[in-house]
Amino acid sequence: MRYARTKAFVRHARAIDAILTHGNAEGLGTPEQMRQLNDARRSFETVRPHGWRDVEAAYVKHPERVREASNGRLQRAIQALQHETVLRTSPQHRAARFVDDWQKLKLASQRQYQVGDMTGYNATRQAMGDMAKSPQRGPQLESILAGRKLELGIRLETGRSLGGELAFTHCIDLGRGRGLGI
To answer: Does 135 have pLDDT greater than 60?
Structure first.
């Protein structure tokens, strides 16, 4: 089984490396490369469920791991894969990542507003709104995040859901007066 996982891991890394090396500017490969990537994903999925998603999330953070893994040097790529698996499966880690990402976006939006970058500011606020409405949050994560409201900038209880609280507190959602012209 270990041999099959290693083989699927390397095949997947080689497919991604081929797309990154020979793909177009948008990061898309040829139809043949995309077919090979999808085949590699399917074979990886059979030996390690969610493995290709976790390793691709790791590759986004550490692009150099793709080349290493495609050349058979798997140790650091496997560690990154395991880290992403923990982040995906542990509600505590997901909550910590959510709070960290939220705080980074909040600081970025403040900096963009201060320098007058309204396009960047609006894009960042949109990302914050998307995070507030994020469908990936489950009941477990919601309850953990409810205990971390101060870290998310929520100071008052308005009786809304956590997403509603985030949007209202950070003026992403203007509340009831929005459609009334207020």
So the answer is: no
